[in-house]
Specification:
Helix content is 38%, strand content 14%. By secondary structure, it is an alpha/beta fold. It has one domain (10-107, 115-169): P-loop containing nucleotide triphosphate hydrolases (Rossmann fold), CATH 3.40.50.300. The strands form 3 sheets. A 3-stranded parallel β-sheet has the order 3-4-5, covered by helices on one side. The longest helix is centred in the middle third of the chain and has 18 residues, at 133-150.
Amino acid sequence: MLRIDSGEIWFDGKRVDQLHEGALESLRQRVGMCSSRRPCFDSMTLAENVALPLRKHHGMRQSAALDEAKKRLAQVYMAEYADRYPAELSDGMRKRAAIAGPWPVPRSPQRVRRARDLAEVVLFDEPTTGLDPVSARRVDRLIRELAKSLGVTAVVVSHDPPSIFGIADRVAFIYQGIVHVVATPAELKASSDEVVQQFINGRSSGPMETPGF
């Protein structure tokens, strides 16, 4: 969404930072986003929230979009709440409903003819923020289950070690604005890097520099 200051960004064999707006719009339709802030519109039911991007970006009719939205809500164990409004539900339930939304639209076998047609990504921004531990782990499980069953890449930004280790196949640990370590969860846990160990164990003392402290 933002122009980069330096470096390069590549997606599916194309250099994103050099694409014109029309090509960017086409690419954005293949990338879903689940925000940590106000993930649902208060004036719409859960089904209407999930159906909105299907209508706006994929041209689905209202009835078809709502049918698909209800299927997606069923995948996150929210089918019985499809006609409820966000204000009627807990934070965890709203997060689960939000997770139902950004996945790619099902395609017929005739449309999936090339490998690049399957390159779909969903971005999650702190999906467990504000949730109790039990709800957070359920959200972690949902993200991993859906990504695996749909063959989609989930990119999750998180500062919650249990969430990171519950979801990730690979972790990019960012410290002071740069990628400090890229590793599997097992490699990260076994790392001798003191910064990494301080973070994953939540220790207040150590080499990590924290602004304001």
